[in-house]
Amino acid sequence: MRTSSKLFRAGTKVLLSLIAVHTGVEASATCTDNGSAPTIAYNASTNYLGCYSDPSVTILTAAKLSTIIMTPQYCVNWCGQRGFEYGGVEFGTQCFCGSMPDFSAASKTNDSSCNSQCSTETSISCGGNYVMSLYQILDPRVNATNTGFVPACQTQPLCSHQVCDTSWSIAERVSSLVNSLTVEEKILNVVDASAGSERLGLPSYEWWNEATHGVGSAPGVQFTSKPAGFSYATSFPSPILTAASFDDALIRAIANVIGKEGRAFANNGFSGFDFWAPNINGFRDPRWGRGQETPGEDIFVVQSYIRNFVPGLQGDDPEDKQVIATCKHFAVYDLETGRYGNNYDPTQQDLAEYFLAPFKTCVRDTGVGSIMCSYNAVSGIPACANEYLLEEVLRKHWNFTADYNYVVSDCGAVTDIWQYHNFTDTEEGAASVALNAGVDLECGSSYLKLNESLAAKQISVQALDQALTRLYSALFTVGFFDGGKYSDLDFSDVSTPAAQALAYEAAVEGMTLLKNDKLLPLGPAHKFKTVAVVGPFANATTQMQGDYSGIPPFLVSPLEAFEGYHGWKVNYALGTAIHDQNTTGFDLALAAAEKSDLIIYLGGIDNSIEAETLDRTSLTWPQNQLDLITNLSKLSIPMTVVQFGGGQLDDSALLQNEGIQALVWAGYPSQSGGPALLDVLLGRRSLAGRLPVTQYPASYADEVSIFDINLRPDLNGSYPGRTYKWYTGNPVVPFGYGLHYTEFEFEWEEALECEYNIQQLIASYQTDISGTINDNTPFATVKARVKNVGHEASDYVSLLFLSSDDAGPIPRPNKSLVSYLRLHNIKSGSEEVSDLPLTLGSLARADENGSLVIFPGHYKIALDIFESLTFEFSLQGYPAVIDTLPVPDAQYNFTVPVHIEPASTEAHS
Ligand SMILES: *[C@@H]1O[C@H](CO)[C@@H](O)[C@H](O)[C@H]1NC(C)=O
Ligand SMILES: *[C@@H]1O[C@H](CO)[C@@H](O)[C@H](O)[C@H]1NC(C)=O
Ligand SMILES: *[C@@H]1O[C@H](CO)[C@@H](O)[C@H](O)[C@H]1NC(C)=O
Ligand SMILES: *[C@@H]1O[C@H](CO)[C@@H](O)[C@H](O)[C@H]1NC(C)=O
Ligand SMILES: *[C@@H]1O[C@H](CO)[C@@H](O)[C@H](O)[C@H]1NC(C)=O
Ligand SMILES: *[C@@H]1O[C@H](CO)[C@@H](O)[C@H](O)[C@H]1NC(C)=O
Ligand SMILES: *[C@@H]1O[C@H](CO)[C@@H](O)[C@H](O)[C@H]1NC(C)=O
Ligand SMILES: *[C@@H]1O[C@H](CO)[C@@H](O)[C@H](O)[C@H]1NC(C)=O
Q1: Lowest-confidence range among 96-100, 140-144, 550-554, 664-668?
Q2: What are phi and psi of 745, to 5 degrees?
Q3: What is the best residue among 899, 900, 901, 906 to mutate for testing ligand 5's pocket, by most ligand atoms within 8 Å of CB?
Q4: Per the structure, how many domains does the chain have?
Q5: How far is CA 733 from CA 284, 430, 663, 691, 730, in A?
Q6: Cys bridge to 640: 1, 371, 662, 736, which one at CB 3.0-4.6 A?
Q7: Residue numbers of the domain that contains 86
Q8: Dmax over Cα atoms in the chain, in whole Å?
Q9: Distance between CA 564 and CA 194 in Å, rounded?
Q10: If you take atom 2 of ligand 3, which residue's CA is the nearest one?
Q11: Any signal peptide, and if so, which residues (predicted)?
């Protein structure tokens, strides 16, 4: 999503002629009078307070509604009905509510600045771009209760329409609904703030809901301001930290809770039924501000995450889902810098192996409901107008063809086709090429120009009907019309003790030990009586949530957790901010340290350094923090550093500094970050996370252009490549790294055979399993025995890598992660066996055409990054293709003039 106002353009013209062209076909079933669609039952009385500039959209934040039928009265009614004392309209279409405006973020301005026409009543103004028309509500409903969500077919008058007649098939019901809509109504229902149809009794619906690591804030999600009931949802660690657990079962459990909580919100009218998660773009460049939202740089890890997250979120039945998941952003989107207008020209090889592989898994293997197309262009054509990606690859090749499978645009991405990519000459042209390429739903408002597209014959009504058919079929899968097996989920299913325990568990399991000179674990004996707790994350609360967060039930800071530990007297000092020049706080920090017998420094980076729309330019620690850490380390007091943030910092100075005995990476651990950290530092829980990314030296940012899309290194040494698979330099800390409090010994329980013939392998599968093979086809299971020979019980993540020095063309990957498993709580002296399954995909890599090929040659499998165990085997025979990628056409045809974009070498302005 984006925060820019561009998507809600002032004065957007909307056709809302509700003239009935078709009337609903009468239903044969009885239409019981069982409640009606929630209506606004009162008109709020208000004082107009004026027009306020709102540069960061923070005047009112308690609840937000985005709808095409916005007027100030509609907004204050909506807010007042929910018990809020203030309401405000901004951007022409957005309504904000709150109990008290934050005037510190606003300044009163001339009424003429509030010049965005309300979309349905153009004579009235609805704020402006970053300017709010603000109202005090004199009679908010004190006992306001949410009117809830009632399945549309239980409301009048829709229930008597054929769409609600259960004697017809879903396809027939959807078709009857689409056929009953006027063209104007159709257009109003292919944007995220979809209008429904008052005439038919079809409710409006906001498609924009977020759930990357818990039900998150979004236009479709409302956290109530009241203390009980839908005022919060479980906030899990950011995906980058959860991924560091390398625990697939944990990821599935988390996604299941997020989906359950999301559906509980939706059932009660506090969110929609579809959520725009997971973010599955590979964390390819360490500077990417949104890498924190992803499971890291390795596509095999990303694919495993998807296989667990999507079914966890959606549930097992594609026809009766918990919620709809959306894999985003399709495709080749992994940078914020210039994101609205950049074009990338990746090779077919990198497309197949890196950029498209997560989406293939999502579509082909998980039954995901929807896919989001991205801001950037690929090979000169914006992703949301890209017939190759959306039609040939996604729909035809991967079979994204269930009635309910739809494509949604990233927010404003359709407008950007015209405005930033300059791909079309007009906004309606952008809408036309997106719809024709197969984007069924726009997040934004350019599709409201589709009436002009129709008039100019740039699109057909059939294309519009196709999109609507997919969207309503999708809403059927989540009970929007009839209800479903998840319709009883309620607030009692939100933030349960089990969900809270899971959020704590995820934080514990992800935390990763990068250095330990015998300082950790700190307990349980009270070795340290007085502990200095210093740094800009020491008292972190919302900072621990990272981006795409919602409102958690609680946030326990490290400081609060440490102060609650009775063994310690805590001396707290902020010391320094995340990044500034002010060293005034150093003295207090050093003083706190000097009277302590242990220093815990908690810092790193937060969303002021890495975020959506904000890439990093440097991989170093902020200088002020590094200076303070260095000063503290000279005190000769035992010291541990805890590094927060999603992207890695170059830790060279800390790793070399003997005054710092331990270093822990804690990502964004969210609501239970403090207790999780306390428990791993004390050793009540083991530290066993592994880095899901490479920690590059800071020089990498100078060496590699952020716009260089290639994964592979240059053979002449001018470009070092990306990710552990290809990087030719020396990482500061390698992908997969993570220390333990104990020691392990390893032994193969079952390795592989010494030799396989590729053609025999494939033939055996073709006869075994229904004739088709692909990268998912099982190959063999390697078993490793892991014995804890140290003194502490510990989890252990088994990582299995594959490499070859002679198979297939050069360059060859350094190695590839092909299997992993987290073993839990292996007691001192005991052992467990890791089953590590391999597939034919484990053995394959992409050729220049993007085909996955198994090449003959000598191979090695190795357990862990230290190669604790190895086994060599060979593949004989001929190269064999197990998966393909369609070849792009020489030319794509559009119904409007277009301008193919060259590859970006700098940020598109
Ligand atoms: C009325 O709606 C409720 C759920 O909202 C449902 O359980 C009940 O069966 C409905 N009654 C009729 C007569 O349709
Ligand atoms: C609210 O005001 C509108 C416009 O003045 C009017 O049509 C409507 O009946 C009023 N509703 C109530 C519940 O007073
Ligand atoms: C709100 O609820 C309380 C308790 O149920 C009741 O006494 C009061 O009259 C209600 N107020 C309004 C304005 O409905
Ligand atoms: C493609 O998807 C459709 C609809 O979901 C399904 O019926 C069909 O079996 C699938 N085809 C293949 C080859 O998987
Ligand atoms: C947009 O493209 C047209 C046609 O290629 C060109 O004339 C125009 O200068 C471009 N505008 C921008 C802002 O790049
Ligand atoms: C820690 O943060 C909390 C919540 O923001 C705040 O109330 C508290 O005063 C802070 N503690 C210190 C010692 O600054
Ligand atoms: C530096 O920080 C101190 C304490 O945090 C504050 O009082 C002071 O105003 C700051 N100085 C500047 C120049 O921002
Ligand atoms: C575009 O049009 C040309 C000329 O009619 C045709 O040869 C080509 O196949 C078309 N491309 C696509 C992708 O439809």
Answers
A1: 140-144
A2: -120, 150
A3: 899
A4: 3
A5: 16, 45, 12, 8, 9
A6: 662
A7: 46-140
A8: 84
A9: 48
A10: 143
A11: 1-27
Strand positions, DSSP E, 85-192 = 86-90, 94-98, 107-109, 131-137
Overall pTM > 0.85: yes
Q: Which of 17-21, 31-35, 755-759 has the lowest mean pLDDT?
A: 17-21
Task: Note whether 698 and 750 are same-domain residues.
Answer: no
The rounded mean pLDDT for the chain is 92
What spacing in Å lies between the alpha carbon of 397 and ligand 4's midpoint? 11
Buried residues in 530-549 as b, exposed as e (16+ CB within 10 A): ebbbbbbbbbbbebbbbbbb
141/769: higher pLDDT: 141
Same domain flag for 616 and 663: yes
Nearest CA to ligand 8 atom 8: 891
- Considering the candidates 54, 247, 320, 410, report the single residue annotated as catalytic: 410
Is the pLDDT at 9 greater than 60? The verdict is no
Of all residues in the chain, the percent with pLDDT exceeding 90 is: 82
Alpha-carbon distance values, 402 to 368, 390, 483 (Å): 10, 14, 20
Q: Report how far ligand 3's centroid is from the alpha carbon of 622 (Å).
A: 54
Question: Are residues 566 and 637 both part of a single domain?
Answer: yes
Q: What is the dihedral of CA 521, 522, 524, 530, to 10 degrees?
A: -170
The b-or-e profile of 407-446 (16+ CB within 10 A means b, else e) is: bbbbbbbbbbbbbbbebbebbbbbbbbbbbbbbbbbbbbb
Q: For residue 720, tell me if it sits in a domain.
A: no
Q: Is the CB of 34 under 6 A from ligand 1?
A: yes
| Domain identity same for 784 and 659 | no
Contact 902, 343 (CB under 8 A): yes
CATH number at 566 reads: 3.40.50.1700
Ligand 8 atom closest to the CA of 889, numbered from 1: 13
- 410 is an active site residue: yes
Question: Cβ(426) to ligand 5 under 6 A?
Answer: no
**Is there a single domain that holds both residue 688 and residue 788?**
no
Task: Name the residue with the closest Cα to ligand 6, atom 9.
Answer: 539
Q: What is the pLDDT of residues 189-224, one digit of tens each?
A: 999 988 889 889 998 898 999 999 999 998 888 887
Would residue 448 count as lying in a domain? no
Give me 114's structure tokens. Answer: 């509030």
Transcribe 661-725 into DSSP letters.
-EEEEEE--GGGHHHHHHHHHHTSS------SS-B--TTHHHHS-TT----SPPTTSS---SHHH
Ligand closest to CA 365: 4
Report the CATH number at residue 806. Answer: 2.60.40.10
Strand ranges for 385-528 from DSSP E: 406-409, 512-516
Ligand 6 first shell, C-beta below 6 A: 539, 541, 557, 559, 572
Q: Name the residue of 533, 534, 539, 559 to mutate for ligand 6: max ligand atoms within 8 A of Cβ.
A: 539
Q: How many angstroms is it from 186 CA to the middle of ligand 2?
A: 27
Domain boundary among 678, 703, 728: 703
Beta bridge partners of 831: 787
In a domain, 527, yes or no: yes
Burial of 226 (0-12, 13-18, 19+ CB in 10 A): middle
Nearest to 483 by CA among 316, 273, 210, 306: 273
Closest atom of ligand 1 to CA, residue 34: 1
Ligand nearest to the CA of 139: 3
Q: 631 lies in a domain?
A: yes
Same domain as 861, residue 758: yes
Question: Count of residues for the chain?
Answer: 909
Q: Which residues contact 608 (CB under 8 A, 6 or more apart)?
A: 578, 579
Q: Are residues 520 and 661 in the same domain?
A: yes
775, 864: one domain: yes
Q: Which of 559, 560, 562, 572 maximizes ligand 6 atoms within 8 Å of its Cβ, making it the mutation to test the pocket?
A: 559
Element containing residue 262 per DSSP (H, E)? helix 248-267
* Burial class of 498 by CB neighbour count within 10 A (0 to 12, 13 to 18, 19+): exposed
